[in-house]
Amino acid sequence: MSDSARTRSRPSNRGRNGSGPDDSLLDAARERVAGAATAQTGLLEAVGTLAGLAGGVAGSLAQRLMSVPEADLDARDPDYIRESLPGLWMLASLYFRAEIRGMQNIPEKGPVLLVGNHSGGNLSPDVFVFPLAFATHFGVERRFYQLAHNLVVSWPGIGPMLRKHGTVAASHANAARALDSGAALLVYPGGDYEVHRPSWESAKVDFGGRKGFISLALDKGVPIVPVVTIGGQETALFLSRGEWLARLLRLDTLLRLKVLPIMIAPPWGLVIGDMAGRIPLPAKITMEVMEPIELREEFGDDPDVDEVYDEVITRMQGTLTALASERRFPVIG
């Protein structure tokens, strides 16, 4: 066979347009890859946009919860308190078998700073029972306010009711405004740190080193009246404050929450966060109001804050230990 025949007999590797079939396949593949890349980029951009919107909403919500509103002292409604007092006091008496001692130790008039240990989680019976006792003893017309975390005051359903009873968002400015109005003011320096302590620390006063209440009392020239309570930490089985979990979820920066408590409580069983609602166990609540502490009379014209703090804690701890010794069984009292 001649060389020309051999050449004619070889199959052609080129298409009509001068490119081989392999090149056509490669071009098609490149187009598909490019299209997929474009689609993926669009998807990523869409996800990024949604994430940005979600982040914006979360940031806006966090900012709202982080910003403590100025107290509206006029939101306290004496008529509402008067109407709801009999039923709520009956509930407190029957369900928690509330016993309050020493109300006569609260000055009859003028501003006063009531300082309490805090128990029972977000559904603290302390916050529920003591305002009822105060209104019963002094009458609903005497101005009385309580500080609470902004998250609690903003809670749908319970928030409006608390505000009508005189609960305001916790801040130094709001506390000062309440005392300047001539009212009695109840504060819980231990806050969310103390109220979610483990149940086996029920008989421990633990303010976590927070001393702002002392500066407040000195600035306003008002006496400190300690209010000691036991029983609240038996309304659920509190297992842990969950400080590590709050840090992991950045709740300390997003919502001013240093804890994310872990507990066992009906009806859910294991509860994380104490925000879904639960049924408090009917633990007996006992409160004792101690004698007033006039800071400058006891500690001089320029009291040492650390010294005052240690003394207040020591006195309250002694009373709490005595109350704990009276209890024979958890919940039953």
Characterise the protein shown here.
With 333 residues, the chain is an alpha/beta fold. It has 2 domains: 54 residues; 212 residues, Glycerol-3-phosphate (1)-acyltransferase (3-Layer(aba) Sandwich). It is 47% helix and 13% strand. The chain has 13 helices and 10 strands. The strands form 2 sheets. Strands 1-10-6-2-5-3-4 form a 7-stranded mixed β-sheet, with helices on both faces. The chain has a 3-stranded antiparallel β-sheet with strand order 7-8-9, with no helix packed on it. Helix 3 packs across helix 4. About 10% of the residues have low confidence.
**For this entry, what is the oligomeric state of its chains?**
single chain
The proportion of residues in beta strands is 5-15%
Helix/strand class: alpha/beta
What is the N-to-C succession of helices and strands? Answer: HHHEEHEHHEHEHHEEHHEEEHH
Q: Which of globular, elongated, flat, extended, rod-shaped describes the shape?
A: globular
Specify the CATH architecture of the largest domain.
Answer: 3-Layer(aba) Sandwich
Number of domains: 2
Q: Which CATH C-level class of the largest domain is it?
A: Alpha Beta
Notable characteristics:
13 helices; 47% helix; seven-stranded mixed β-sheet; 2 domains; alpha/beta; 333 residues; Glycerol-3-phosphate (1)-acyltransferase; globular; three-stranded antiparallel β-sheet; 13% strand
Task: Put the structure in a nutshell.
The chain has 333 residues and is α/β, with parallel strands linked by helices. It is built from 13 helices and ten strands.
